[in-house]
Amino acid sequence: MSNSTTSSGEIASSPSPLSVEHSLSSRIYHDLRQRIIVGEFPIGSRLRERELAETLGVSRVPLREALPQLEADGFIHTTLRRGAVVTQITLRDVEELFDVRLGVEVYATRRAAQQAASGVSTLALETALETAAAAVDTDDPDIISEANADLHEQIVALADNTLLTTMMRPVSARDRWIFRMTADRDAHVACWEHTELCTAIMDGKADMAAALAYSHIERGRTPTMKALSAILPAQ
Predict the structure, then answer these.
(1) Which pLDDT does position 22 carry in this prediction?
(2) Nearest CA among 129, 165, 136 for reference residue 150
(3) pLDDT, the chain, mean
(4) pTM score, two decimals?
(5) pLDDT, tens digit, for every residue of 182-200?
(6) For the chain, what is the HEC assignment?
(7) Backbone angles phi and psi of 107, in degrees to 5
(8) Cα–Cα separations (whole angstroms), residue 32 to 18, 69, 76, 144, 170
(9) How far apart are CA 220 and CA 202, in angstroms?
């Protein structure tokens, strides 16, 4: 790690090459994930390292560090013959995602409400809710789906459970993909449900928040499966 002198005479530490490389691979991961979510890299398409590196303007080292995380989160799979390929998500995958959310996300919501009841600030959640509500007025599916996904992740963040956050990462990542695929659903309904849910969390009503979370997830299952049945294989 190198050091430099600040204007006040103090020694400031420069980021190590390792930390810079890790930060770059994280940015590459989020960039590639978003490109997959919006369909720039369609399901089944190959992700060639040389082409990706040129497109993103990066070297192959941080790119190769980002790909395993994309695979862990279910966005790509790698094979010896074809390399990295965007995952073919199926209706069965979506059903399983809803089942997992009914367990893990409902717990996260209950925990978030308990945190609020104990005096933990809910300002970040309030801000996320306001952003999600404002997104509805844009009629932009990308903005709406991203804001809704951010809101759900903020509930998990408020729960403040490290293991839960780790477990929810691939679930939240898949949620973003599904939200984008079904962005033409009535956003006003989701907004109303989000407002009701977040109000219960911020009021510290754990049982009500958990019940609303379960209802919110289950209500979304049928219209989501119906919308995706026309574009995804069964399994």
Answers:
(1) 60
(2) 129
(3) 89
(4) 0.84
(5) 877 889 999 999 999 999 9
(6) CCEEECCCCCEEECCCHHHHHHHHHHHHHHHHHHHHHCCCCCCCCEECHHHHHHHHCCCHHHHHHHHHHHHHCCCEEEECCCEEEECCCCHHHHHHHHHHHHHHHHHHHHHHHHHHHCCCCCHHHHHHHHHHHHHHCCCCHHHHHHHHHHHHHHHHHHHCCHHHHHHHHHHHHHHHHHHHHCCCCCHHHHHHHHHHHHHHHHCCCHHHHHHHHHHHHHHHHHHHHHHHCCCCCCC
(7) -65, -45
(8) 21, 11, 10, 19, 15
(9) 23
- Give the whole-angstrom CA distance, residue 62 versus residue 120: 37
* CB-CB contact of 158 with 128 (8 Å): no
Tokens of 185: 């659903």
- Other C-beta atoms lying within 10 Å of the C-beta of residue 140: 14
The backbone torsions φ and ψ at residue 12, rounded to the nearest 5 degrees and listed phi first, read -105, 140
The pLDDT value recorded for residue 20 is 43
Two structure tokens written together for 107 = 């717990």
CB 71 within 8 A of CB 78: yes
Closest to 106 measured CA to CA, from 225, 2, 206: 206
Task: Identify which has the larger pLDDT, 11 or 211.
Answer: 211
